[in-house]
Amino acid sequence: MDILTSFTFLIVAVGTMVLAFAGGMVGTISVMKGQSLIGDAIGHATFPGIVLAFMLIGVKETYTLAIGAVLFGILAFLAIQMITSHSKVTLDGALALVLSSFFGLGMALMSFVQGNPDFEGTQGLNDYIFGQAAYMLRSDVYLIITASFISLFILGAFYNQIRIYVFDPVFSRTAGINNNLMNFIILVVTILLISVGLKAVGAILIVNLLIAPAVIGQLWSSRFSIVLLIAGCSGSIAAFLGTYISTAGQDIATGPAIILTLSALMVLSLFLAPKGIMRRSIYKRRMGGDMP
Q: Rounded to whole angstroms, how far apart are CA atoms 43 and 101?
């Protein structure tokens, strides 16, 4: 109970829960569109933007680093589009190329900054690789809440158009929906959430915060709105439990604790959910066929 009333715990818990809720909902759309790995590539690609922003400003200011991450996230997506449009490289190949190249650039810049006496206060930049939510400040939480609110507001404003676009792009074009605009909106909110969530879970683990809740939601329901809600709630629950475990354990990093908790919820859902292994096995034995 002492942990639950701790100011530090409450700051971290609120920030990670809001991030996980919005990330789960937005990530579900990306997963349903078959673009889940784009989030992984963008997550890794934002790291050099953070280091470059620090090099230009000279201080680890939350909003400046987030802008650097957003710009490089957009640059990474444009690079993926250019590679797939003007070469014979497949999407998977382009994702792997951009992910490794951008992240390698970030690590090279990080090594340069840490070994250069002209740059001071580099401690903490490594936290953006694996995340260090325990050191989140109020400004970090305010930024996460603002970005999450903007993302959810945009998602709500274009909910019907996005739903049609996700399930039937051909019909959405016939209905007068701009598919390019829908794709751009999904991209923007994804990059926004990845950029503000790096300090919490890191560039390497952020993709799990987008994909795992989506998998959980789809295992429990087939209705789009319910899947989104379950994804958001499961992300928030994992964030709270992971933050609590990290705070109580002291030696456990918050980001990995959240991801492991979320993975545990996904495994449980894989067995116990209506579309899970056990329910499907029972249905198959009783009805002599697969579930609809």
A: 13
With beta carbons less than 8 A apart as the criterion, state whether 197 and 23 touch: yes
pTM listed for this prediction: 0.85
* CA angle at 97 for the pair 32 and 58, rounded to the nearest 5°: 100
Number of alpha carbons in the 13 Å side-chain half-sphere of residue 283 = 13
DSSP-assigned states of every residue in 137-175: -HHHHHHHHHHHHHHHHHHHHTHHHHHHHHH-HHHHHHT
Q: What's the CA gap between 15 and 24, in Å, rounded?
A: 14
Nearest to 32 by CA among 226, 194, 182, 224: 224
The answer for residues whose C-beta is within 8 angstroms of residue 231's C-beta and 6 or more apart is 24, 25, 27, 28, 213, 214, 216, 217
What are the residue ranges spanned by the domains of the chain? 7-207
How far does CA 246 lie from the centroid of its chain?
20
10 vs 8: CA distance, rounded Å: 5
Summarize pLDDT for 115-171 with one digit per residue, the tens.
777 777 666 677 777 677 667 778 888 888 999 999 999 999 999 999 999 888 888
CATH topology of domain 7-207: ABC transporter involved in vitamin B12 uptake, BtuC (1.10.3470)
Looking at residue 176, its amino acid is: G
> Residue 162: which of 144, 186, 142, 139 has the closest Cα?
186
Four-residue CA torsion sign, 8, 13, 14, 16: positive
Q: What are the Cα distances from residue 196, in Å, to 79, 89, 119, 229, 284?
A: 21, 31, 24, 21, 44
